[in-house]
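*Target chain*
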Amino acid sequence: MGFADDHLIPLVDEGLGNSAYLVDLGDGRALAVDASRDLRALRAAAGRRGLTVAYAADTHLHADFLSGAVQLGHDHGATILASAAGHRGFDHRGLADGDEADLGGLTLRALATPGHTDEHLSFLLLDGGRELGVFTGGSLIVDSAARTDLLGADRTEELARAQYRSLRRLAALPDATAVWPTHGAGSFCSAPPGAERTTTVGAQKRSNPLLAAPDEDAFVARLTAGLGSYPAYFDRLAEANRRGPAVLTGPPTLPGLSAGQVRALVADGGHVVDVRPAAAYAAGHVPGSLSIPLRAAFATWLGWLLPDTAPLAFVTDEDQDPGELVRQAYKIGYERLAGRLGGGMAAWLADGNPQNSIAFLPPDRAGDRPYVDVRQESEFAAGHVPGAVHLELGGLAAVAADAPRRPIVACAHGERAMTAASLLERAGHTDLAVLHGGPADYAAAHGQRLVQGTGDARA
C-alpha cells in the first residue's frame, strides 16, 4: 500500500502530555501505539474510518497511565506487541531487537532502545525498505529524551548512559524519518514545555541539545540536570501494566451518596475529593476535602496526592460529567470510587453539616500575607515573586506543618493553589487565601518585578 500522511492519526492526551497513535493500515484494520486505558478518542477516530484495531503496540511499561492494549485485545481481538523483556502477565507477542511484525503491506520492526525503562522498544514503521517513521515512546522525544530516574536513584546514571546509546542509534536513521514520540509537552517524563509533539530525525539532529552533547558524560549531565519531581503514582503503575489492567465491561458509573454515607466513608479512612472549579470550592466545601478541579490535569494530581488504596467520594457540580471523572481516575488505576455526594453542597448543608471556606483573592487584595508558590521548580526558576516561599504542590503534604501561617497560596492561575490550600487546611492551617491569578499579576499589582532562579526562595 502507499502510505499517506493521513494514515497516521495522533491522539493527544493534553492532561498527561502524551500522544498515542492510530495507523490506518489501508484494509479496514489499524495499529494502535501506546494507547491508554481511556480509549474514547481512539475509538472515535477508528469509528470515523470504519477501522478495527488489529494490533496494539506498547513501547514500554508505562508509568504515567494504564495501557489500553489489554482492552483492545478483548474488544477487537487485537494482537498485542510488546517487549519480551517486559515479562508481561497476559497474552501478547513478545518482541526482541530486530524482530518484525507483518502488518499486511507495512512492517513494524522492533528496535531495542533502553534508557527510559530497561525493556524499552522503539518501533520502526517500514513500507518495503523505506523508513516511514519511528515510534520512539520515551526514548528520543522532541528536543529531549525521557527521564531515566523512574527505576530509582541508584539506576539513574546507568539508564542515562543507555539512553545515550539509544538516541545515537535512532539518530542514525535517515534524516527524513518521522519521529513519533509518546511523551510530549506537559509530560512529567521530561518533555520540554511548548515543544512540538512530532518531528524528524534530521530536525532533531539540528535542534536537540542532548544529541548535540559532545560525549556520553556530557549527555548524562545534561539529561539528569533537567529531572524534576514526578507524580507519586508513577512508582507503582509500571508493575500494574506488567500484570495487565482489568478489562472494563461497561460504561463508568459513579453512584450518588448521601451526606451520611460520605461521613461514614471518611470515618472509615476514605477521602473526599472536590472536583468543582476553584472558586466554588473557595466559597464553601466539606471540611477536610481535597480540591482537585476536574480538568485535563485531574488524573495527574489525583495520582500524586492520594493513595489508590482508600475509597474516594467526590463533590461535583451539577453540570460536570461524572463519566469524565471516572475515566480519568481509571486511566491511572484508581478504581475505589465510592460515588459522589448526591445533591452536592446543598444536600451536605441541608443535612446539618458544617462547611469551610477559603479566600480567593485578586492580586490587589492579597495584602501582606506570606507568598507561597506551589509550582514546579522549573516554573519557579523561570520567574517568581521576590521573597516567595517555594513549596512544590507534589511535596506539600510532607512539609505542611512548616508552611507560613496566613499565607496567600499561588500557582500559575489558581487551580493548583486551591489544591495546595486544601492540603494546608487538612494539616490544620486556618485563615488561608489563594491568589486568583499568577505571579506576573501579583508582581504588577505590587510594583514588583519577577526574579529568576532559585537563590532567593525561602523554602
